[in-house]
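Example: TerB family tellurite resistance protein.
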Amino acid sequence: MSFAELFDSEFKQRNKGHFSAIVRVALADGVVYPEEKNFLDKLASRLEITESEYEEILSDPLKYPINPPYSYVQRLERLYDLTRMVHVDHHLEDKQEVLLKKISVALGFTPSNVDYIIAKALSLVDKKVDLDTFVYEMQHMNK
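Written out as structure tokens, the predicted fold is:
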């Protein structure tokens, strides 16, 4: 296996892990609403998840581990996707918020301030900010 193939394989696994985390959030309330399905479809395309991988992840989202990104910006990008998934059906249920907090800790955010981070993230997504604004605001929320 070449170095490029190894990198592609690792990248693909991280994308599957990220997608499965978002599927877990979508399934937390037991139903995937049409808005959530549309979001998942778009995200799967962006993450280069094949149709067969998509179906496999939907049937068993716990199969793939959450692989925290190395950089803080990449963690914020994943948090953005997760927060948008929770917010997409326009009502935050307790299970979804709890799962979002757990996944955020698994992504590498500090447990002691995860509530503050999630509140800020949900506030920004509620304002329909784009990814760049989200990352900037999250990086500067304590200033």
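The longest helix spans residues 3-27.
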